[in-house]
Design brief:
Helix content is about 40%, strand content about 20%. By secondary structure, the protein is α/β, with parallel strands linked by helices. Belongs to the bacterial solute-binding protein 2 family.
Length: about 350
């Protein structure tokens, strides 16, 4: 038996068989010192550390979404520095059932750790729990699942992101008062709900700033453009549109031009460091601001190293921060994030 292993499942069977035959309390891949057992799933597992090879399954809710594509790119970039890691990517294409099946497939393949950005948190919770209960570490990015049956959640506080947007709109764009409206994400999405709650909390505290409406853009530019067109016609005195992501913010920007309201300021969330992302939209003046929202890809790889190579437990929750980006700092932030 060697420290090299094709996957956690095959390694686990070998270790258990050897320990039973030798009637030892613990054993290692080298036959010498006991392998440390680390609990990062529902049950503790032996850890080969730096001498092992590891396969990581990455399940993305929707790679067609710019944020999903950037998350995968960040994971690839961060993992390149760890030769022990082999990555296997799967794209659920926005389908919860497909994503649940992908997790089962990863388990069947015996991967050592799974990273998932859920298409939706609640429907994927049972599938994530099955992974965790079988002892495979599972890192959940961006969208929370129900319960505590996961190894580590990595993502921003979206209520606070909404508050940040509200403070910027009320304090910087409407210091003398005015009207704002909201382009929300997918209906029943925790992410959209949290960004809306935080924004409304701040706006409600400002007597001279009023939120006059909200529509659902489903995270999509074209849908947001259609909905914002209706909103601007119904409320011709809107001064600022706040969209829950940059794609919808771009749609709102186009809607403002469709309706002859070039004076309307638009604020988004995302700030992806790509040519078509929110940072460039702010730099060019299409958006008044965005919030550079971390994908968690880099942090996921660092956590995988901690678990698989460092043989250490992972923190249950890792809260990341979103950074306000305006035209004044957009170029600097873009340069920093693309280094």
């Amino acid at each position: 038996m060697t420290a090299r292993m094709p996957g956690r499942r095959g390694y686990r069977v070998t270790v258990v068989a050897a320990c039973v035959l030798l009637t030892l309390p613990a054993c290692s891949a080298s036959g010498g010192s006991p392998a440390p057992a680390v609990r990062n799933g529902g049950v503790a597992q032996p850890c080969a550390g730096a001498s092992g090879d590891y396969t990581i399954g990455v399940s993305q809710g929707n790679v067609a979404d710019a944020y999903g594509a950037q998350t995968d790119a960040d994971i690839r970039k961060a993992a390149a520095a760890t030769p022990q890691f082999t990555l296997r990517f799967a794209d659920a294409q926005g389908d919860n059932g497909t994503q649940a099946q992908q997790l089962e497939q990863f388990l069947d393949e015996g991967v050592d750790l799974i990273v998932i950005t859920p298409n939706e948190g609640e429907p994927l919770s049972p599938a994530v729990k099955r992974v965790f209960d079988q002892g495979t570490p599972v890192l959940v990015l961006d969208r929370r699942v129900e319960g505590g049956d996961y190894t580590s959640f990595i993502g921003a506080d979206n209520v606070e992101v909404g508050r940040q947007a509200g403070r910027f709109v009320a304090g910087s764009l409407l210091p003398g008062g005015g009207q704002t409206a909201e382009i929300r994400g997918l209906v029943d999405s925790d992410l959209a709900e949290e960004r809306s709650v935080g924004f409304a909390e701040v706006i409600a505290e400002r007597e001279n700033v009023r939120s006059v409406g909200a529509v659902d853009g489903d995270w999509l530019r074209d849908k947001a453009r259609q909905q914002a067109n209706v909103l601007l016609k119904e409320h011709p005195d809107i001064d600022v549109l706040y969209a829950h992501n940059d794609a919808m913010a771009e749609g709102a920007y186009l809607a403002a031009r469709d309706t002859g309201r070039e004076d309307v300021d638009v604020v988004g969330v995302g700030g992806l460091p790509t040519e078509s992302g929110g940072l460039k939209a702010v730099e060019s003046g299409r958006l008044a601001a965005t919030f550079a929202y971390p994908t968690g890809g880099k942090e996921a790889v660092a956590t995988a190293r901690r678990i698989l190579i460092g043989c250490e437990p992972a923190p249950k929750n890792q809260t990341l921060s979103a950074e306000l980006v305006t035209r004044e700092n957009a170029r600097r932030v873009y340069s920093r994030l693309t280094q």
